[in-house]
Specification:
Layout lengths: L2 H4 L2 H13 L2 H12 L6 E5 L5 E4 L9 E4 L15 H7 L55
Antiparallel strand pairs: 1-2, 2-3
Helix pairs in contact: 2-3
Length: 145
């Protein structure tokens, strides 16, 4: 075992590499604020919404692929903002990136990806054209004569 490894100098060098890759001290603090995690990895792609996808094979399998959500979402991001083709890559359903997969279907009738809007003002709200079975009681009006 080398003296540098014994003194954990490789860990310190790795720490400075992570800080540098995440945009220095300010960028690293911003990423810690938004994501609670600092990682170093290779940028493998970006989707049409600005989400960036990274991979680092030094991490454990299952933890070596991740997404950094676009700044357009501010702090209001969730998993439904990842398109299906990138979802498959993130969850190891395929090792091919979306732009490298020749067998990925793309038909004219396929609708573009939209995120889940539940809990927002854009959520789907069904309406009914039938009378409700239970109606609220309204007190009788008093005549003002």
């Amino acid at each position: 075992m080398s003296l540098a490894k014994y003194l954990a100098l490789d860990k310190i060098a790795n720490f400075f590499t992570i800080i540098k890759q995440n945009g220095g001290i300010r960028g690293s603090l911003y990423k810690m604020y938004r994501q609670d995690d600092l990682k170093d990895g290779v940028l493998v792609g970006q989707d049409e919404f600005g989400n960036k996808y990274y991979q680092n094979p030094r991490f454990f399998y299952g933890r070596n692929r991740w997404v950094e959500y676009s700044d357009n979402f501010n702090m209001d991001y969730d998993g439904s903002q990842v398109p299906a083709e990138w979802f498959g890559w993130l969850h190891y359903k395929t090792d091919l990136l979306p732009h490298e997969d020749p067998s990925r279907p793309k038909y004219k009738w396929m609708v573009p990806f939209t995120e889940n809007m539940s809990g927002t003002t854009g959520q789907y709200t069904p309406y009914s054209t039938t009378r409700p079975k239970v109606e609220p009681w309204l007190p009788p009006r008093k005549s003002s004569v």
